[in-house]
Amino acid sequence: MAGNFSFDQLKKAVSSGEIDTVLACIVDLQGRLAGKRFLAQYFVDSAHDETHGCNYLLAADIDMEPVPGYKAASWSKGYGDFVMKPDLATLRRIPWLEKTALVICDVLDHHTHDDLPHSPRAILKKQVKRLTERGYIGYFASELEFYLFNETYDSARKKHWQGLDTASPYIGDYQIGITTKEEGVMRRLRNEMEAAGIPIENSKGEWGPGQEEINVRYAEALDMADRHVILKNGAKEIAESEGKAISFMSKYNYGLAGNSSHIHNSLWSADGKTPLFFDKKADWTLSALGQQWAAGQLKYAKEFTWFLAPYINSYKRFQAGTFAPTKIMWSEDNRTAGFRLCGEGTKGIRMECRIGGADLNPYLAFAALIAAGLAGIDEKLELQKPFVGDAYQASRLPEIPKTLRDATETLAKSKMLKQALGEDVLEHYVHTAKWEQFEYDRRITDWELHRGFERY
User: Fold this and answer.
1) Boundaries of each GS beta-grasp domain copy (predicted)?
2) Each residue of 92-101: pLDDT tens digit?
């Protein structure tokens, strides 16, 4: 749990006037930062111990609408408080905001001060604890893709999100010349994230006009999830300060590539020195443990797809021939696969899950992948042979759920996730998924109006 700023350093910076604001943030169901801006001196004096927030924040949809039907929080229960407990190990300076530091908070029960089981960070901490108990460290890295626009969020709204001006007029995948035009935002993003204790390896153009990919250095699962949410929040703030807008929507335009969040994952020894997936004598140099881990993720992929694709729009990304997967299988270095083996023959060998979109909540996604991997180890599953060829054209491979409705049904039936996460936690997120579907089903879309206003 590594920030880049100790509490003692914060106190000195507050005393000298270098820091005057501290953001105390939880992570909501959507993977967004929510919380309070503290006068820094007050945070140092007392709020560093704990503060409070309304428990509807983990029972609301993306529009901040209090959703009926949750057991954990409701109007009938009065929407009381929960405790926001700053994890001071996550404290960091935020270079793109003046005189500001940020800390991630755990969400605790107001009465018992135990982790609130359905909070995203608690869900991941529980799965990390399961790894620790077995002597494992889970290293994760998420690649984030997004579109950069020569628009502000205000101008995009006024255009009704149609005909938007992308930062580059055509696809510049890996092209240095075209992405130089985008450096005003991207250079700041790389350097200021690094200064905030989020090490950036590189950025590049992606397979869409104005589409970018940024790669964060791998870390232990909880650290990586913290980095992921701060990066997303900060990227939007940096872009807005430059008069630009960023979208992490999975599929903002039917005719263009979607935004993914590929997740690399592997297990190492407790001291972080020995890669437990590397065995130069094993098939594909993937150890027996690594093969069981991967087999578990393949077996349960349909059941945890919602944790990788939580919205209606998420499923629009799964289109053949777009570098987004449509099938549940694994392959050696094959970008048509749902799961890809990377780093074969090296200590960096790992599985890359390519199913997730940039709209996922990393705490939930990482937790689901860990739970499935551990299930594969416990069940001693055998890893199938790798697929070779174009997975888009292979008709007999199992498919990723095609819609949110399909994914919700498989999520609700998952015995593995019920056992790993807890029945109440699983029910909480099944309810979240059903509400998203309900909200969509009762809305009138532009497509319906275009298709039927005159012709029906």
Assistant:
1) 17-115
2) 999 999 999 9
